[in-house]
Amino acid sequence: MSRLVRTREIWLLAAIVAMIGAITLRTPAFAAPGNLLGIFNNTAILIILALGQMVVIITRSIDLSMASNLALSGMAVALINAAYPEIPVPLLMAMAAVCGLALGSINGFLVWKLDIPPIVVTLGTLTIFRGTNFLIAGGQWVNADELSGDFIQATRLNLLGLPLLSWCAIAIALLFFVLMTRTPLGRSIYAIGVNPTASVYAGIDVGRTKFIAFCISGLVAGFCGYLWVSRYVIASVETANGYELSIIAACVIGGVSIAGGIGTVGSAVLGALFLGVITSALPVINISPFWQMAISGAAIILAVILNARGERRKGRIILKRAETGA
Amino acid sequence: MNEVQAPAARRIPDRLDNPLRSAVFSWQTLLLLVAIAIFTANSFASPYFLTPWSLSDATFNFTEKALIALAMALLIISGEIDLSVAAIIALASTAMGFALQFGADTPGLVAIGIGAGIACGAFNGFLVTGLGLPSIVVTIGTMSLFRGISFIVLGDQAFKGYPASFAFFGQGYVWWVVSFEFALFLAAAAVYYVALHRTNFGRRIFAMGNNRVAAQFSGVRVNRIKFVLFCLTGLMSGIAAVLLTSRLGSTRPSIAQGWELEVITMVVLGGVSILGGAGSISGVVIAAFIIGLVTFGLGLLNVPGIVMSVFIGMLLILVIALPIVYRMVRQR
């Protein structure tokens, strides 16, 4: 199974490289290291969010509320920063993450204790979080001149040639890699995605694991709330509106199976990068940005078709084993 | 949609509930009580609420979404979902605007809008049944694709200048305060009620949603019915596109943005199980009224739209959580 996923990741990587190559033929400056690092930096937030979403999707759930959670947490820290500029930025980052964690735990609680399907829960919290955003801000924006200098500069802080924002994405990707491949929790997350019934018999608390998955996606979304506001220097009700679908798209393009149990850190990162490269490439090759939506839609459908081929083969093998076992 | 749970021991009751008792404790009754409560609260909260014309205006808030919700209910009961409905509206509306540039008349516009809707639905249906893909991701993809095409055609422009006779569909009245939209919704609700609850077709939809494999082996042509249901959802989205375009009098690519979630909220609030296999048209119709009344009532009180969505979101979770909590408390 891991070999199959690996080859998928290699294909996706090849597609991204080919795309960059093709664009470079027309515009040589596109492949300049500076520009590529810029694209990575622009995609950093999507990468982090896709990692959080991946964990939830692997447990056979879905978190539609991530973008609203991001907007609400971002607005909360932006308001705090505007009112109390003396609070240090690292503390604000932690506050954003904790705020996101709290919101994510609401989703997780409803899924775990009340057994409401995740798509329904997060559909509800999606609108609730965004509405709450409007309420706490009174419908106002927090603009650049209200935010402190440190707040804005933190994500732009240059370390060893890369902005802090990029380092955040790299560090979080590594953390997720360790979590998913080297910890019992990661194994449980995969287990309940592959076969919830068997997981129950193996002693895994399915509901609790889902709860933790939603806490993780909430934590990540909250932290990205800070990153987003610092990066784009504005917090509004419309922040990241509709972005939840881009996050899911990144996962699907990467090969995370919506049926659960399949997906790796590499796949989520590559899926996000694929979308990021398309977004940055369109203006360079003189295609109107209005094409972007249709192209990412086509990419999603193509990715699903390719995913389905891989999964179907795998599904059969499992069935045979189950039959011989029984 | 793909929940798998450990098989629970099923308790078989000594005798069936009597029909009166089960009617009183049914989902529809709960919804109806909520609807009446909201209606009463609205009448007290605003003096402008309880007049025929206000109530007629209130229906415009939800009829287009409710039309789609009828077809979506069938689709969700069958175990699939369509997230691309709002994008289909955008594409169908763009197709109508495009045809207008070539001098299409009112019947032509309606035909093109509805035709585009069916074509989009058929495309979804083909991807799901023909290629065997999960509908939730397919329609996330087509959602971007359909609206994306709309953006390619229109960019930041808009189609305007629809003929005067075209305005009837979204703005006309059939009789006194009953708008064409509302009359169409009532008629469609009756048709869907009969189709789901009184025909073999409807029975097969429930069978598929409860156990796809068993339905297949019982001779239900699962894929064909799914394809038809996707086309139906496309058709209703096409009709909604005609109504909405006629009501607004213009087409922009951002038309009906975010409606897919509102339509699904309506369906789920109406008691349709998101896992498939259970639900009723009467529940969906009452849920449509509830959402319409809540948004209109709050609108009269000058509550901004985004705050209304908080109420809708909470209503969705509360109405679904309440019976579960009630059952949990009773079991203790």
Overview of the structural elements:
The complex is a heterodimer of chains A (326) and B (332). With 326 residues, chain A is mostly helical. Chain A has a single domain (2-325), classed as ABC transporter involved in vitamin B12 uptake, BtuC. Helices cover 76% and strands 1% of the residues of chain A. Chain A has helices at 2-26, 33-58, 66-83, 89-113, 118-137, 149-153, 164-182, 184-194, 196-201, 206-232, 243-254, 265-284, 292-325, and strands at 158-159, 162-163. A two-stranded antiparallel ribbon of chain A has the order 1-2. In chain A, α2 packs parallel to α7, α2 packs across α12 and α3 (66-83) packs parallel to α5. The model of chain A is unreliable at 313-326 (pLDDT under 50). By secondary structure, chain B is mainly α. Chain B has one domain (48-331): ABC transporter involved in vitamin B12 uptake, BtuC (Orthogonal Bundle), CATH 1.10.3470. Chain B contains 15 helices and two strands. Chain B has helices at 19-24, 27-45, 52-60, 63-77, 85-101, 106-130, 135-154, 168-171, 180-197, 200-210, 212-217, 222-248, 259-269, 281-300, 305-331; strands spanning 173-175, 178-179. A two-stranded antiparallel ribbon of chain B has the order 1-2. In chain B, β1 (173-175) and β2 (178-179) form a beta hairpin. The longest helix of chain B has 27 residues, at 222-248. The mean pLDDT of chain B is 88.
Considering the chains and any ligands shown, give keywords for the structure:
heterodimer; A: 326 residues; mainly alpha; ABC transporter involved in vitamin B12 uptake, BtuC; two-stranded antiparallel sheet; 13 helices; disordered C terminus; B: 332 residues; 2 strands; 71% helix
Compile the SSE list and pairings.
The complex is a heterodimer of chains A (326) and B (332).
Chain A: H1 2-26, H2 33-58, H3 66-83, H4 89-113, H5 118-137, H6 149-153, E1 158-159, E2 162-163, H7 164-182, H8 184-194, H9 196-201, H10 206-232, H11 243-254, H12 265-284, H13 292-325
Antiparallel strand pairs in A: 1-2
Chain B: H1 19-24, H2 27-45, H3 52-60, H4 63-77, H5 85-101, H6 106-130, H7 135-154, H8 168-171, E1 173-175, E2 178-179, H9 180-197, H10 200-210, H11 212-217, H12 222-248, H13 259-269, H14 281-300, H15 305-331
Antiparallel strand pairs in B: 1-2
